[in-house]
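Hi there,

I know you've been waiting on this one. I reran it after we fixed the sequence typo, so this is the corrected version. Both the input and the resulting structure follow.
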Amino acid sequence: MKLLSRIYNALIFTFLYAPIVVLIIYSFNDSRNRVKWGGFTLDWYADLFQNELIMESLWLTLEIALLAAVFSTIIGTMAAVGIYSMNGRLRSLMMGVNNIPMVNPEIVTGISMMLMFVAIYRATGLLQPGFLTLLLAHITFCIPYVVLQVLPKLRQMNKHMYEAALDLGCRPFPAFFKVVMPEIMPGIITGALMAFTMSLDDFVISYLNGGSTAQNLSVTIYSMTKKPITPEINALSTLMFGSVLVLLIVVNARQVHDLNKQKERR
């Protein structure tokens, strides 16, 4: 059974990652032919960094991802603290509300937010589809992931530590930042990395809420596929895959590190 299980897992991972491996290999192909190997080259990476449209989309993507990670981490951390302080029924209700955007199809979330932004723009002249609407959309769908990363750290923390700090004369806000914040910081960092990764990788919500003036990399790549695909796409996809892979490794490494620390304390 163990041998069959290993063979099954190997086949599944091969099916999942073989196309990505082929894409990475052909990003170094000297030929434009996507079937024939013409030798090793880095020209497509050089052409990629000289493409103004891709570079503008790259900087926009990084800017949106960074801002969305910062704001969603702040809001998500505050939300997690608020949910943690609620009683049982209300906490369960709020957790259900928090989980809705995660289980909801992205197309539904994207269309609903687009309709809301359009309604606000027609009524007030504010929130014209562009950079701001794209940023607000990314912050919105990143918040639940931050909450789910911070809340377990609050549950693991000894709640009497905060009360002890208050009894010793510390005010509520300084007590939170000096006592609670260091305890939940691993969850905050993990949530920020998750938010950054999710924002970096999003397409559906970005396509519906970015308008014509704010297009991130995923939307730009989609628009480029309507024309004959150049090997620059392979190079760009390889860099994006590598970036997301590094971030996921960092997130998982932090989680393993936190688990080891908890075992040592016990």
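Quick highlight: The first helix runs from residue 2 to 26.

Best,
R. S.
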